[in-house]
Amino acid sequence: MKKIRTILKGLIISVSTLAAGFLALALPFKMFANLSRHDMQVLFLAEIVVYFIMSMTYLIFRDKKETEKEKNEERRVARREKFERAQKEYYDLAA
Fold first, then answer.
1. What's the distance, CA 63 to chain centroid?
2. CA angle in degrees (0–180, nearest 5) for 65-68-73
3. Is the pLDDT reported for residue 23 higher than 70?
4. Contact residues for 50 (Cβ-Cβ < 8 A; gap 6+)
């Protein structure tokens, strides 16, 4: 289930990135005849803002995943140490 979810997420991200890239390239060329120089500059700035937002969203999700991974590793280490300590105390008690 998790693998299917990861694949679907990757496909959605890929398709949305391709669509945004296509629109970012096709839209200015399509509208070049209809827009003034100032309008083209505004459109270019809007594209930059969209790319910035998309990259920041990606970085936020990646950072969240890394912190979650670190927390899980800390939890595993603490649990392993607790288990080893309990095992050691049991062996000392048995001896």
1. 7
2. 125
3. yes
4. 20, 24
